[in-house]
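Onboarding guide, step 5: your first structure request.
Type a short instruction followed by the sequence, for example:

Predict the 3D structure of this protein.
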Amino acid sequence: MPDLAQTALDLVNVPSESRHEHAAVELIRELMPAAPAYDDGEVLLYGDGPVVLAGHLDTIPAQGNIPGRIEGGAVHGLGASDMKGGVAVMVELARAGIPGRYLFFTREEVPVVESPLPTLFATGLLRDTELAVVLEPTDCILHGGCLGNIQARVTFHGESAHSARPWTGLNAIHELVRGLRALVELQPRDVELDGLTYREVVSAVRVEGGIASNVVPATASVELNFRYMGDGADERLRALVPEGALEILSNSPSAPPVLGNPRVRRLRELVPDVAPKQAWTPVAQFAEQGIPAINYGPGLTRYAHRVDEQIPIENLNVAYETLRTFLS
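The system replies with structure tokens like these:
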């Protein structure tokens, strides 16, 4: 068994906040046992075969949790679970000569429009892929598909006035409060696919409005986050806030599960537990290319993006042995 904990710690200790991953890319070049088949400085692709293991190198901003450490049977530090532990498993599988393709990429923790993967897809190098396994944190079980993710802004307009005579204007903040009533009362919507239940949810995540304490505001806006499954999400979101001007800031599409895929069935023999991915992952980007994909990784979902982020060493070993058996 390779020293997966040390490899994960080495990766954690290289800062790689989104858009600043160059040092992590260089470390992957040093660690991998052969030259890449593709390297544009943002995406590295190694090996060959019908199965691709994929992992992103970037992290959210640090929260005083770098450098990391090994303590209490776990690797602690920024990105340990999401997803440098998964990347460490990929690296050590490649170094052990396990056949497969190994895909490392940057800019995943930012809007999908910044993703470097479309440039790789355009080359056709992955055209014959039969399954992509994305090593996002899944607690060492399978997570099928993924939710889509819309970030939107809704603006409400009024008319400015003196706050001592508000009836001479129209308070945009009041219009915003009234306009969000349907959203506030909305219950999660369950969508079932292949026996997995995904929960569609909409959240108001940021509100802006007003210029001074004695001015009735003429504009107010709210940012919404919509996690959805399937088509027509834009229209469903617009229907919730018909009185406001809605602007879609970004839309990362959803992806259905592919549990009937022959290679997924083989993987399920090794990992029988399957859950819906109640989040967005690059599985959706593979799905857009017609490439079946599933999430499986050693990271702990409950520790992703936390200040005390960590990954059990045992999870690293389990994921390594599972994927070694699967690929062999």
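Each response can be followed by summary notes, for example: The chain has a mean pLDDT of 97.
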